[in-house]
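Hi Q.,

Before the meeting this afternoon, I wanted you to have the 5-phosphoarabinonic acid prediction in hand. No need to reply - just skim if you have a minute. The sequence and ligand are here:
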Amino acid sequence: MFNVELDDAYKFLSESELKKAKEDALKAFETLKKKDGPGNDFLGWYDYPLNYDKEELKRIKAAAQTIQRTSEVLVVIGIGGSYLGTRAVIEALTPYFTNNGLEIIFAGNSISSSYLVKLRDYLWDKDFSVNVVSKSGTTTEPAIAFRFLYNILKKKYFKDELREHVFFTTDKEKGALRQVGLENDFEMFVVPTDMGGRFSVFSAVGLLPICAMGFDVDQLLKGAVDSYNYFKKEENNDALNYAMVRNALLRKNYNIEIMESFEPCLSYISEWWKQLFGESEGKEGKGIYPASVVFTTDLHSLGQYIQDGRRNLFETCINVVNPSQDIDIPFDKDNLDNLNYISGKSIDYVNKAAMNATKEAHIAGGVPQIRINIDSLNEYNIAFLLYFFMVSCGISAYMLGVNPFNQEGVEAYKRNMFIALGKPGYTK
Ligand code: PA5
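Predicted structure with the ligand bound:
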């Protein structure tokens, strides 16, 4: 079960505003499907779940077994699109980052010395493997992290054993990482040339770590394939309608979208979504600023602003209809905490009451609401959701008239940093 409720956003829009947005969304969808818009050489993700490399998937499953056999910890080294999707899926399935005795840690997504030194100390007496993920193979953050962790691995393991602890996911033809992999005969997996990082979670980028953590990548790919087929149609297409409504709201100056959930384990789905939409749409002075909150946590902080602050916000809530676990609130004969009025009710019942109450309050406060209902958190449903967002993002960015698949803006800080650090080839 998957559906998107838009009625509480429609209330804030007129019929003519919706009609115009619908026409534009349909045109943008045509552009996406025909693959004739800007950035069309980066549309490999669109039908990838149907055409993925079956031989590579076998290698991924074998490498995942090797990692499970040799390691207590898997460190995934990567930044941006090279780690957010992986983390989003794994955290949604196992909020404590362990499964079947294997722990996963993410590194190379900052340049924090404290983080790296503490990680080095934590890993020192453990058996661990690294999966370095970098399409370009030259990104500074993962390169620094790998240099540190590789030095530990070289002290721990002989050359032949090392091959069972180091796995690269990178471009199949170019990049420094590929060179290191070739020189050392490390096992390498591919980030397809025609796929940007933020659209790569269904390639080896996500599949290897997700599989190593013991999750069902066949179900993940099936969810993506079914989502592809489901969101191909023009009528009653939630991906198209979500893009249509958010753009109609933007035209009325609702220029901040807050992604929210009442399940904390979805916070990295929101982080992934923020990169997906922020990096795809935020260009040429355009775009909706993607923000996120976790409720009810943030109702006790940002809730004030959302209810009563500047009126340029709308909210999209991911509602997990059936939680993976639920438990009733016990009766207490003393009732000193005055909670007996909800004893016998389940925690999820209370959580859903909070969710519905929040929606009602925020509508009254002038905040348009979108709700995405997913049945439960498993590999299939999570993939279905992520692929829905990817399609919708392509449509939405084309509605804005920007290229969804480039990110020239992120180069500006890098250039300044490289000049400051004296990187060869960079001068003022
Ligand atoms: O979505 C993107 O393309 C970016 O977030 C990249 O994934 C990120 O910058 C990391 O790049 P790379 O994979 O080349 O190390």
